[in-house]
Amino acid sequence: MEGIWNGSWLPVTAAVLLLLAVFHRPAKWLLAVAGRSLLWLGALVLLGTAGLPVLGANCFNALVLGLLGLPGAGLLLGLRWLA
User: How much is the average pLDDT of 47-55?
Assistant: First the structure.
């Protein structure tokens, strides 16, 4: 009985290595943005519990801050001021 790994391990291994090589940078970038977003979410929660609810502690604000940093904070504050 011939299984999938008996004769096709080389093409499968090559395909996995190719995918890792192609998507290495985007995965690294996404992990970095996710990490920064979690840090910003923690900062927003800490500001909210300290009595300074400047911005709401939600995923959208954390993602914008994780992508843009302090300029993102200015953007969110400007949008809050306009609304």
Answer: 86
d(C-alpha 45, C-alpha 41), whole Å: 6
Range of the domain at 77: 30-83
CB 67 within 8 A of CB 35: no
Nearest to 20 by CA among 5, 12, 4: 12
* Tokens (6 digits) for 40: 């910003």
The count of structural domains within the chain is: 1
Q: Using CA atoms, how far apart are residues 58 and 62, in angstroms rounded to an integer?
A: 6
- The reply to whether 11 falls in a domain is no
CA distances from 49 to 42, 43, 46, 57 (A): 11, 10, 5, 10
Query: Residue 81 to residues 6, 12, 61, 75: CA-CA distances in angstroms?
Result: 64, 54, 15, 10
Q: How much is the pTM? A: 0.69
